[in-house]
Design a protein that fits this description.
heterodimer, A: about 400 residues, alpha/beta, Rossmann fold, formyl-coa transferase, domain 3, 2 domains, six-stranded parallel sheet, three-stranded antiparallel sheet, 18 helices, 12 strands, about 15% strand, B: about 400 residues, 17 helices, about 40% helix, elongated
Chain lengths: ~400, ~400
Amino acid sequence: MAETALDGLKVLEYCQMISGPYCGKLLADLGAEVIKVEEPSAGDAARTRGPFPTDVPHPEKSGLFLYLNTNKLGVTLNLGTASGRELFRRLAEQADVLLEDRPPGEMAKLGLDYASLSAINPRLIVTSITPFGQTGPYRDYKSYHLNLYHASGHSSFFYVAPRERRKESLVVAGGGVGDYDGGLSAAVATLAALFARLATGQGQHIDISKFEALLALERVMVALFANTPEPPPLPGMVGGQMPCQDGYVVVTPVQSHQWQALMEMMGNPAWAQDEKCRDETTRAQHRDEIQPLLEEWMAQHSKEELYHEGQALGVPIGPVRTLAEIADWPQARQRGFFAELDHPQAGRLEYPTAAYKMSETPWRGERAAPSLGEHNEQIYCGRLGYSKEQLARMAADGTI
Amino acid sequence: MTTGPLEGVRILDFTWAWAGPHATLLLAFLGAEVIKVESRRRLDHTRLRSLMTGPTMTSPDHSVVFNDLNAGKLSLTLNLSQPKAVEIAKRIAQISDVVTENMRPGVMERLGLGYDDLKAVKPNIIMLSSSAVGATGPERTYAGYAPTFAAMGGLAYITGHPDDPPMPLSGAVDLRVGTTSAFAILAALHYRARTGKGQHIDLSSTEAVSTLIGHTFMDYSMNSRVQTRAGNRDQLMAPHNCYPCLGEDKWVTIAVACQEEWDALRRLVGDSRLEDERFADAASRWQNQEVLDQIIGEWTASHSQEEVTQALQKVGVAAMPLLDGRALVRDAHLRERGVLQPLHHPLIGERLTLSPPWRFSRTPAQIRRPGPLLGEHNQYVLGELLGMPSDEIERLVAEEVVY
């Protein structure tokens, strides 16, 4: 079996839904041992959300939960009990990293915050992932993806051409992408802190604000507004997204040779010789005249035809694809972007893997997401040394 | 100055545009020394203009966009069409830990700077190649930018109001790709620290987008069903939308996930229509969300964004104003957390820029210097790091190798 990048790294994850679990997944998929701690009975709230096979809700069959918890071990633990908190401390004592996403102050009330845990494990890195961070006036605010996405300015930075602008509200990005962003940002910081520990031998606390993780992705736009009180409205892109015969394509002729290639694809129309099309500046100035000519031509062709013919000539062009079209895309297939994993209840399903192919340390497809408490015996008996009788007692008294 | 977590890591950076530079920007924030290789022959186009923000820069050293995406890095000008420049790049690779590039697959190999070439001079080098659709597969030579990554990765199709076209997303998508690259590089650094081995990382920007909406593929995997655009609606939660507030084009978002939150909202709004059995449980609220949105919208419309937000948050309901660029930069929370910081640039002057997005208690990430002027660090890299005498450097400049 191939080596993994993060072999030997021990992570304790006490997180729900998307951000924290995505951070844990990124580490687990590259070989870290991630022990996911869930509340007994209900577990991670993601288990209640679909998609479910044939739309029948089942806590072990949530597509959201299954995708976000691959390659992890799962234990149940009730932190509302003193014995549960003691078990948690023992797990944290053996861990390199704790990922937690409780509202600020809650872990401290449980005696499980960075200050308490670093006293028993000074090498521990605690990554706290919350909507607005551990400090500041919004620290106690509740916020779901919808709230955070719109609050971080992202929806206002979408380019919407003036004639398409309507009297309706701006729109949130699909797929909960902004929650993934928080998890990805936390994973970068966590690995960096582990790297620092190689030199210092010391752990530390990392405060991740999902709000700021989102803002960081619009650093150019935010800086524009911060330094220019009334910036001019965004200019439209010449090209951009355009309807075509069977959907939409996106064209981004950023460099002059790319514009030339686009004109070549369109059969070098006479209007392209006009002074208005001379360079990027003149084209932007005359966008309203040029854009309809591009659209008229695109409308006569299919998106895949435009994609392959355009790319062959050097035009940066891409089809707007549905998820099914991506799942069936030969390029992704050939790269092995999708992998099948077996799950005892959900069955054999295909999962997206990772965008990076690492030559020495492949993405790990060892196991599907854990069922609730699946690894209680392995961890509590095998790792912490409890007997099976003690395990049964802890299950009966509500500790696990 | 305190040291960052990646103190001592050196990165030789051939990336340009947005995605690649954002990866090395993050690593520079974390304390790595990033040497950006550029050339007057082939300028990073963010030094010249920006698709997003419009303005054409007065000179390559005055670009605010470049500054925002390349703060903390060093600049070395090398004309890689000259064999001598390639040799110099290899000498720097020999004393580097990581090499990054986002040219079209095949270009670095043609230049003699492919992974095998670099591995020959530095066996444990880590190299990241970021491209539109990956360095393998039938479409590996295809090119793209953020809008095509979003379109082909699935995000555009599932974003937008149901009756509207898909939403072409842009700048943020590139930065997502860059963050993904930074993560992969850090994982490779861990592997190298443990085993002494380097490796090559082949990253597909389009796949990076797909992984960040990964669970939406599960519906296709399970039910052969394809998610479409749902505006601001959620598959389970209701209310879950943007609601109009007092003032022109002012909106607040409200999302209710459980009965407890619903009860709090209902009591606060105090409209008897919300007692109706159409809204008694989560499933009925979802079924009747259009009427529900109407009633809540009537309430929000007579209050300011701040009033609605504060009143709902006080009773434990998730609500936030929709903020645009103007509102964000005045936001009290961001001010208190120092999210915007002044950065002095010798030609642009003092300008606010976004601080690193993580708070480390022990090894803070920080912006150590503004975006570099073109070739600003030629002397440091060639003279100090490679030990070239100044007459040799002058000769290389005259020959347009250092250019």
